[in-house]
Design brief:
The protein is built from five helices and two strands. By secondary structure, it is mainly alpha-helical.
Length: 183
């Protein structure tokens, strides 16, 4: 009798615990990539990259002009003039390399800075949808940690709808594996 009572009690506890824990999945990458803010970020980064690229092109043209000057120097002229032109070229080459490095860092930093509020907005919306639908746990399938997951509890489209993002077919990484269990 005690054994049956313990089994019944354990079953009841397991059922209660299961009922309180409602899980869902979301593809946050799909949401973030379709947000208008992301498209705006990409345009700003592209614009900044083009601006820096133009500056770099100007530096390359200056380098080529100085190289042509060096080639035009009469070899019978003093070595001091030639040495000065070579030093100028080397200095310009170092400035070009420094500029390339700083331009890359500037674009990366700009992208990271502009990405933070986008990610925070997506996270808040995912949390809102999960709360509204009563989910206690939401797993992000875009992170690559989920191999098998139920399709019925995917809140990606619900979050996109709440954010006013048009629904597009999910990316291949968001589709469940062929072995996913049916509910």
């Amino acid at each position: 009798m005690k054994k049956q009572l313990l089994i019944l009690l354990a079953s009841a506890c397991f059922s209660i615990a299961n009922a309180q824990m409602k899980m869902a999945t979301v593809n946050s990458s799909d949401i973030v990539m379709n947000m208008p803010e992301t498209k705006s970020l990409q345009a700003k980064v592209r614009e900044k990259s083009e601006e820096l690229s133009k500056q770099l092109d100007g530096m390359y043209k200056q380098y080529e002009a100085k190289m042509a000057e060096l080639k035009g120097v009469n070899p019978q002229k003093m070595d001091a003039i030639q040495e000065a032109k070579v030093a100028e070229l080397q200095d310009l080459q170092k400035r070009i390399e420094k500029f390339q490095e700083s331009a890359q860092k500037e674009v990366q930093q700009m992208e990271q800075t502009l990405t933070v509020p986008i990610l925070e907005k997506a996270k808040k919306m995912i949390e809102q949808v999960a709360t509204e639908k009563g989910y206690s746990h939401v797993f992000d399938v875009s992170a690559g940690g989920m191999i098998v997951f139920p399709t019925g509890d995917d809140i990606t489209n619900a979050t996109k709808t709440k954010m006013g993002i048009s629904l597009t077919p999910a990316t291949p990484s968001a589709t469940p594996a062929a072995t996913s269990p049916k509910k």
